[in-house]
């Protein structure tokens, strides 16, 4: 069986750091299913695959122009 992964990431960027949460149920579902599929373009939404909340952290360097 193929495992499907979806991200629902809500982040705050401070300098080179991105900190936030990753949640299919509490971030992805309200934006993708409710806002986009129920209100803006009525059509079937996506199934919620996970009800957990995970921390999200990323550090990146800025590209020099």
Strand content: 25-35%
Overall radius of gyration: 15 Å
Low-confidence stretches: none
What is the first-to-last residue Cα distance? Answer: 45 Å
Helix content: 25-40%
User: For the residues shown, what is the average pLDDT?
Assistant: 83
What tags apply to this protein structure?
65 residues; alpha+beta; elongated
Structure description:
- The protein is α+β, with helices and mostly antiparallel strands and 65 residues long.
- Helices cover 26% and strands 28% of the residues.
- It has 1 helix and 3 strands, in the order E-E-H-E.
- The protein has one helix at 24-40, and strands at 9-14, 17-22, 54-59.
- The chain has a 3-stranded antiparallel beta sheet.
- A hairpin with a 2-residue loop joins strand 1 and strand 2.
- The longest helix is centred in the middle third of the chain and has 17 residues, at 24-40.
- The radius of gyration is 15 Å and the shape is elongated.
- The termini are far apart.
- The model has no long low-confidence stretch (mean pLDDT 83).
Summarize, please.
This protein has 65 residues and is α+β, with helices and mostly antiparallel strands. It has one helix spanning 24-40, and strands at residues 9-14, 17-22, 54-59. The longest helix has 17 residues, at 24-40.
Which helices and strands, and how do they pair?
Elements: E1 9-14, E2 17-22, H1 24-40, E3 54-59
Antiparallel strand pairs: 1-2, 2-3
């Amino acid at each position: 069986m193929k495992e499907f992964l979806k991200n629902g990431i809500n982040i705050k960027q401070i300098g080179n750091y991105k900190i936030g949460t990753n949640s299919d149920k509490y971030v992805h579902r309200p934006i993708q299913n409710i806002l986009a599929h129920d209100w803006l373009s009525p059509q079937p939404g996506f199934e919620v695959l996970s009800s957990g909340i995970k921390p999200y952290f990323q550090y990146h360097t800025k590209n020099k122009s």
